[in-house]
Structures are given as C-alpha cells and as structure tokens.
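Supplementary Note 3. Input sequence used for the single-chain structure prediction.
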Amino acid sequence: MPGIENSLPFGIPEALEQLGGLALREQSMESVLQAVVDLAKQVLPGNPESSISLLVNDKATTAVSTGRLALDLDESQYSRGYGPCLHAAATGQITEIPDMATEQRWADYCRTAAERGSGSSLSVPLPIHEGVMGALNTYARMPYAFDDEARAAAQRFAPYAGVAVANMHAYQSARDMAGNLQIALESRAVIDQAKGILMERHKLTPDQAFQALASVSMRTNTKVRDVAEQLVLTGSLDPDNSGWN
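The predicted structure, written as discrete structure tokens, is reproduced below.
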C-alpha cells in the first residue's frame, strides 16, 4: 500500500480512512491483508506486532504478519492446536488476553508468549464465509494494552481483511476453473461501486461506506460482494434495514 510510511504518525481514524480509501480492484489481495496488519501495528497500543491467521479444513496458517513475534506466537498456537487466535477464528468471538503472566486459559501457551515478550493480545474474528475461518491478531508487548477505542478499531479493521481473504480463497479454490481471476477482480470492482453509491447517497466517508456493507454482510450472513451487488443492481442495500435504503 504505497504512501503509508510517509504519512505517519497518524491515529486510528486516519488509519481507517486509509483502509476505506483503498480501491480494491487496484490492489492484490495479499497487499490488502498486509495493509491491515501494518496499520494495526502502527496505531494500536502496546508496541504490537500483528498477523492474520487462517483456518481452512482444520489447517491453520499465517497469511501475513508484521514481525517475528506475531509469527512465532501464531505458530506456537498451531503446534498446540489451541490458543486465542484459533479460538477467535473457530468461534467467531473476540478473544483478549489482558495479561499473559496471569491468564489461566491456555496457560502453557501464555507462559511461552510472555517469555517471548508479549504482555497481552487481542484476536478479532474475520467475517469470512465459504467455510474459511480467520482472525486478526495483535500481540502487544505490555499487559492491559487494549482499551475500548483499540478494541473498536481492531473490529473495524477486520472486515477489510475478511473481504480480501474471501476473494483470495475463492480464487485459490477455483484456480483450475476458467475465468476465476476475472471473478475475483469483478468482486472487488462491485464493492468499490457500492461504496461510491453510499458515499454519494448518504455523504459517507469511504470507511463508513465499507462498514455499512460489512455490517449488513455480518448481520445477514451474506458475502460482502453479494450485498454490494444487490445495491448496485437494485439500489437497495438491505431490504430489512430501511435506514440504508
């Protein structure tokens, strides 16, 4: 994501506007994921490292990370088969460890995390469908690093990663089918179109427009791409939510 480094320092609202301003059709799926974790590292407290964990057919991998700490702690959980990032991905629940030194859940993992320099962590599930689960993980170097603002920001970062992961998985799963790349590109294009409609209709920022799409996606268990396509084709974002129609 060009230009991030030169725009620092900035805060959480500016970071969300950076993500909201991404033209998804112009970005690789991997670059969107990297932008999410880079921004999480830069604006969340506790001098953190961030990563995105994916769980596909019970196999966990780290798609992107900002540093060795995040990658090591992800892999420590994968080798055990449990931990906060896996719990968040599998259950869809935000999972926070306020203090690695005193946490009783996953006690052996937490001891390892504390020894490696993490004081607390926050894992936010990604809104992904098609049988893929994931989490945005932030490992802070101090205990009790996350306040309400940080938790809210992490939750707002997650839908951007969710869209990229869903597109990436759809492409990888269908890579032997003709036209799969075009489908992925069209998916990102229709989301950008829908964002533009909402921005014009309701005077929203790019981030607010995307969050509106993501909110309907999560509430109705519908892919963001399908919510966006409905809006582009019919002019209605959600028939059950007249506030956005």
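The two ends are 32 Å apart (CA to CA). The chain has ten helices and five strands.
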